[in-house]
Task: structure prediction
Amino acid sequence: MNKHMDRRRLLQAAAGSALGAVAAAAGAQSFPYKPQQRYPDPSVLILDPSFAKYRIYSSTLEQVGTGMRWAEGPVYLPREGYLVCSDIPNNRLMRYEEKTGEFKVHKANAGYCNGNTRDRQGRLISCEHSVTRRVVRTEADGRMTVLADRYQGKRLNSPNDVVVKSDDTVWFTDPLFGISGTWEGEKAAPEQATTNVYRLTPDGQLSAVITDLVNPNGLAFSPDEKKLYVVEWKGTPNRSLWSYDVAADGSVSNKLKLIDGTGAAALDGFRVDRDGNLWMGWGWNGAVAPEPVDAGNGMKVYQPQAKSEDLDGVKIFNSQGKPIGFIRLPERCANLTFGGPKNNRLYMAASHSLYALYVESEGAT
Result:
C-alpha cells in the first residue's frame, strides 16, 4: 500500500471520528451516507423538461453533517463563509464550515431555534421556537437584540420561519408547534387567539398581516417581492401553499392556493430561486389508513398511507405551481436554503442530517 493511500485513509478515519464526536456529544443518531458514483445523479429527477437546465450533470448529492435530532432552518452567511442550521430538540444551532468541512455546535441553549435567515446587513435572525418564544437578531459583536416577543401585549405562540424583505421589514410565521408539547421545548397555553403571519417594520411596529391560516409554516417572497408565499401546515383538507399579492404598504390580498399537498404529502420550509421556482421540503405527513388491518398475532394496525422513501426529499415547482423536479433524500427534508460563494449550492436540513447539492440556479435573495 502506498503512502498516498495510507494518508487518504487516515484523513477519512479522522473525518469520520470528528463527525461521530459531534453526534455522540448530543446523544443523537448519525447516519452514514453512500453518495452516488455515477453522473448524472439518479437522485435528481426531472418531472418536466423545464427543470433539466437546473440540474448539473456532474454534481451529486452530499451529506455534509449528521447527528441531529430534528434539523431545521438552514441559512448561509456569506461574510462568515459558513452555514447555520437548527437542531430543535437538542436546543442548539449547528454550523457547517465550508472551507474545512467541519460540522460543530454554533450555539447551545438557543431558545429551541427553528427558522433562521439573514438580514440585508448579513446579520443572523432566528426564531426562538419555545420557552423564550421570540424573534432575535445576532449583532456583529455577538450581542442579542430582541426584535419581537409580544403582540398586543400577549406572548407570541412559537415563531417558526422568517424572511427579510428588501425594505428591511421582517416577516415571520407564528404557529403552535413549539408550545404544543415537550419534544421541541416546553408545553404552554397559547396567548394569541389565532396563528398569524407578522410583519415587523424597522422602527419596531409589529402587525399581523395574515390571521386566517391554521399554523402557518414556511414563507418566502417571489424575486420581485410582489408575491408572498406561505405554507399552511394544517390546511383543509391538505397542507397547502398560498400566494398573496403584496402592496407597497405591506398589506396582502388576493389569497390563492398555489400548491395543494394532496394525499399524504407534507409541505414544509422552502426557498425561491432567481427564476421564481419554489424549492420545497417534502415528505410523508404521517397519515394512516382509516381502518386497521390484521398484522398477525392478534394485532390490528393502521397502515401508513404512503412510504416515506417515496416522498422524502425536495420538490421543485415553477411559479405557476407546476411540479418540475424532485431531489430524493434518504431522510425527511424540513427546510432548505441556497448558499456558497456563488449562491448555487442547495443546502437541505433533513431530519438527522444536512445535505448539499450544486445546482444551475441561485437563490432569489
User: Anything to note?
Assistant: The first strand starts at residue 44 and ends at 46.
